[in-house]
């Protein structure tokens, strides 16, 4: 099970059944701002829905498809981060993340992504980490650029999001680039 200390006040860990209510509350209080980018939030409308989401992330972990963790600030769930579509044969992982609205702008996500990159390269032995981010999501686009990811291209109309197609910017980072820069 994943448990990573990010800094003195922030840590990441996989969710368990006891986290269903905090997850539901976090999603519900940030729903209006997050729904623009995360249409699956419409499927979480109760503590029971959040519990099912947690069960699904655990099952995906057990099948070696993804690693999903909550981001905690002083014991308060503030966001989520994941490696999804992990390809262990080719040593590639994709990072996705989101942060509750009132916790944004504090550097929490940049530090959490940095820790997750280190985990991917040094614990999971990945060679490549990718991020695919909507070209309209200016806040999320800052993180891969800040952390040295290379912008590798654009997938046009990559996702049907709230009734219209959005393009995805593809970012990639190689282990040798990360090692050489840190």
How would you portray this structure in words?
- The protein is globular and about 45 Å long.
- Helix content is 35%, strand content 35%.
- It has 182 residues and is an alpha+beta fold.
- Strand 3 (67-73) and strand 4 form a beta hairpin.
- The mean pLDDT is 94.
- The chain has an eight-stranded mixed beta sheet, with helices on both faces.
How does the SSE layout of this entry go?
Layout: E1 3-5, E2 10-13, H1 20-34, H2 47-62, E3 67-73, E4 76-87, E5 92-99, H3 108-123, E6 128-134, H4 138-146, E7 150-161, E8 164-174, H5 175-181
Parallel strand pairs: 5-6
Antiparallel strand pairs: 1-2, 2-3, 3-4, 4-5, 6-8, 7-8
Element order: H for helix, E for strand: EEHHEEEHEHEEH
Kindly provide the radius of gyration, computed on alpha-carbon positions and rounded to a whole number of angstroms: 16 Å
Helix content: 25-40%
| Largest beta-sheet details | 8 strands, mixed
Overall geometry: globular
- Strand % is 35-45%
What low-confidence regions span 5 or more consecutive residues with pLDDT below 50?
Answer: none
Mean pLDDT: 94
Strand order of the largest sheet: 1-2-3-4-5-6-8-7
By DSSP (H or I, 4+ residues per run), the number of helices equals 5
Distance between the termini: 26 Å
Q: How many DSSP E strands?
A: 8
Q: Helix- and strand-based class?
A: alpha+beta
What is shown here, in short?
Helices cover 35% and strands 35% of the residues. By secondary structure, the chain is α+β, with helices and mostly antiparallel strands.
């Amino acid at each position: 099970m994943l448990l990573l200390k990010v800094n003195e006040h922030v840590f990441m860990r996989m969710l368990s059944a006891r986290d269903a209510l905090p997850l539901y509350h976090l999603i519900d209080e940030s729903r209006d701002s997050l729904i623009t980018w995360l249409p699956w939030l419409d499927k979480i409308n109760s503590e029971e829905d959040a519990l099912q989401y947690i069960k699904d992330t655990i099952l995906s972990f057990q099948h070696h498809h993804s690693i999903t963790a909550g981001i905690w600030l002083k014991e308060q769930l503030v966001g989520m981060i994941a490696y999804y579509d992990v390809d262990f044969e080719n040593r590639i992982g994709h990072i996705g993340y989101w942060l509750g609205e009132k916790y944004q702008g504090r550097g929490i996500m940049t530090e959490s992504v940095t820790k997750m990159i280190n985990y991917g390269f040094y614990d999971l032995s990945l060679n490549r980490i990718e991020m695919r981010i909507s070209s309209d999501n200016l806040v999320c686009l800052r993180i891969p650029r800040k952390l040295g990811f290379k912008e590798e291209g654009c997938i046009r109309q990559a996702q049907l999001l709230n009734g219209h197609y959005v393009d995805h910017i593809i970012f990639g980072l190689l282990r040798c680039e990360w090692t050489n820069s840190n």
